[in-house]
Amino acid sequence: METIKTAVLGASGYTGIELLRLLFAHPAVEVSAITSRANAGQALSSGLPRFKGVEGADIEFIMPDMEAVVATGAQTAFLALPHGMAADYALPLLEKGLRVIDLSADFRLNDAAVYEEFYGQAHPAPEWLPKAVYGMPELYRDEIAASQLIASPGCYPTSIILPLVPLLRAGLLDTKSLVVSSLSGVSGAGRTASLPIIFSEVNESLRAYGLPKHRHLSEIEQELSLAAGEQVMITFTPHLVPVTRGIHSTITASLKGSFEEVTAALEAAYQDEPFVRLLGAGVAADTANVTRTNFVDVGWHHDQRTNRLVLTSAEDNLTKGASGQAVQSFNLLHDLPATTGLMNL
Ligand SMILES: NC(=O)C1=CN([C@@H]2O[C@H](COP(=O)(O)OP(=O)(O)OC[C@H]3O[C@@H](n4cnc5c(N)ncnc54)[C@H](OP(=O)(O)O)[C@@H]3O)[C@@H](O)[C@H]2O)C=CC1
Ligand SMILES: CC(=O)N[C@@H](CCC(=O)OP(=O)(O)O)C(=O)O
């Protein structure tokens, strides 16, 4: 198979490392550039010994200098950088004709004013928002394939949007009744040292945070509203739990349609999707079954006493919630089979 030269910016962070894990095993990829300011000039395997001896991994970190990245011949670049700065790096690459898959939140929102409301700063490149595609292949397959700039979704949003969209499209839920409670592993907070997430602080702790307006509400409500054809607002409570990887979401809503219609809508939407595993009615999702995979598992229950639907979903925040989903978009951009490089368990 011909290989596609590919750059990973922010390769020393958790999503960058996860990208490398997937890309070195991907038959159509040659990793041509990896960036990190702290590790520039060092061999990848000295900073990250897990890659020692891995085919294709004999490469050095470079500084995030976009001319140097372009000079490696990269055709596609993954941006695994903090939000608010991805635009600075994306624009010179886009101008040189590279395709960019941005894992940050910078291009996920259609409306620059909503970005400013939730991210507390003016959008750095609003002219690119209409050209960016929300990188959820199950919803935007054709648009992703044709785009130069993919905005890969957030980790919580992936676990919430995928179960709900078919049900909202079919009008089966009371859109005023949506409540979501999510649990995240600590890697969701990134690899930068910070006191509230050191082991001894999180290891005996269960806590909600980000209340009542976590920034992921912006993209969740954007996509749910598009599916419902009306403005949808939800109550969303994220929690930090003492595991390294994984997100579990419990979604409740009052039913407008029947429970049988819920099952039919989910099956119609996802029966041919390789990465959405429908566990079925009466089965609850468990992160233990999806760790280091690109699957999102979805189960659903009918609370007959209240006529509410209870959906559960589980994913690995670093894989389907970030880097795996980004590789799914990469496969679409390069007209590769959807599962290429993503079916390793
Ligand atoms: N962690 C997760 O579960 C998920 C994360 N995301 C998003 O993906 C992106 C990356 O997240 P994550 O991997 O967790 O973050 P990390 O903090 O683990 O890694 C950030 C990376 O960016 C580099 N970096 C930081 N600041 C700069 C800068 N100013 N210029 C250039 N490079 C910089 C860092 O290397 P160095 O400092 O050495 O340059 C490092 O390689 C974020 O936007 C995040 O929101 C999305 C979904 C899930
Ligand atoms: C556990 C934890 O802290 N999770 C992060 C979300 C993960 C993330 O990186 O989200 P973006 O891609 O939208 O930035 C948080 O709540 O801020």
Automatic annotation (TrEMBL):
GO MF, any single term: NADP+ binding
Family annotation (InterPro entries): AGPR, AGPR_AS, AGPR_dimerisation_dom, AGPR_type-1, NAD(P)-bd_dom_sf, Semialdehyde_DH_NAD-bd
Top EC class, one word: oxidoreductase
GO biological processes: L-arginine biosynthetic process
EC number(s) per entry: 1.2.1.38
Assigned keywords, A-Z: Amino-acid biosynthesis, Arginine biosynthesis, Cytoplasm, NADP, Oxidoreductase
Catalysis: reaction(s): N-acetyl-L-glutamate 5-semialdehyde + phosphate + NADP(+) = N-acetyl-L-glutamyl 5-phosphate + NADPH + H(+)
Pfam annotation, one family: Semialdhyde_dh
Active site: 155
Domain Semialdehyde dehydrogenase NAD-binding: 5-147
Protein location: Cytoplasm
PROSITE patterns: ARGC
Pathway: Amino-acid biosynthesis; L-arginine biosynthesis; N(2)-acetyl-L-ornithine from L-glutamate: step 3/4
Domain of life: Bacteria
Keyword GTP-binding: no
Major place of residence: cytoplasm
GO cellular component: cytoplasm
Physiological role: Catalyzes the NADPH-dependent reduction of N-acetyl-5-glutamyl phosphate to yield N-acetyl-L-glutamate 5-semialdehyde.
Homology family: Belongs to the NAGSA dehydrogenase family. Type 1 subfamily.
Protein name per Swiss-Prot or TrEMBL: N-acetyl-gamma-glutamyl-phosphate reductase
Native species: Roseibacillus persicicus
Lineage: Bacteria, Pseudomonadati, Verrucomicrobiota, Verrucomicrobiia, Verrucomicrobiales
